[in-house]
Amino acid sequence: MKIDLKIRRYNPSSKQGREPYYQAYSVNASEGMTVLEAMLEIVGTQDPTLSFRRSCRSSICGSCAVKVNGFTKLACSTQIIPEHQKTGEMVIEPIANHTVLKDLIVDFDPFWKKMDKVKPYLIPPESQTEEVAITQENAAAIDDAQKCIMCGSCNSECNALEIEKKYLGPAALAKAWRFVGDVREEGGRGRLGRLSDDHGIWDCVRCVHCVEYCPKGVEPLTAIERLRARALEENIRDNHGAKHVDAMVESVKKVGRLDEAAMTFKTLGLLRSLGMIPMGLKMEMHGKMPHPHLFPQIKKIGEVRAIYKEIEGRKKTSKKSRKVKRRKTD
To answer: What phi and psi, each to the nearest 5 degrees, are found at residue 320?
Structure first.
């Protein structure tokens, strides 16, 4: 089956100019042929200048992530024929949210620097003299985070990273949870404090793309939510993310609804909230400004408060249980 591939090309040293362009190639696709195999065939028989990364061909190394028809996938595990049948075309591009160096090769240096920022290693107690046993339950809590192959697919699809390049990103934060969630970790609170700073765990907008496009089932969003919960349990609240959560909980416990106008002041503080006045005026002009007096306390507010009381009780029990999970081996 003959299939045309349109591949995005870019060569900063080209005499033709530095603007990216698309180049068409044709391959005879057989059943099971992958995008990587097609690109290798192109390099071997049509155009040896086409540049891309690859290594294991087994979805293990994470080197070959590219965009296929607009979505990030591993080239070595993505078959051409099924993808072509979905849209009738095959467009191959470099992953997003990374600077393109040449063709499908992107700069991973910022990726590794962010990974280094989360200190991707265990920080054990200084006084520890005996090993700590890891139960199946302990291992299950961090098992998904250990599956990461550093392919960058989650970062490529991350909406928050698209807007804020300083954001640590889902890959680094998933790696952070792998160690924060480890029962042998003793540097958890300090680590959580750093992760709660600007461009850390509270920058995530929960678009769920990192979960949807991860080829290994790491679920970075779950890791980020666990980091947020653990940070709140450790009372790390001197940041806008935690203040926003506290304001939301306070509002719902008080009246059973969200007082969105008040949440802005409680989250950002008075001075920073003043900077939101122009937006507030535009919202008011378009009938989008929430008015607290329109949302009185709900009738069964007692039931809402009872739910919160039960949740808070469970959180205390969970925190106590983690403290006793560290036990010495026989």
So the answer is: -65, -40
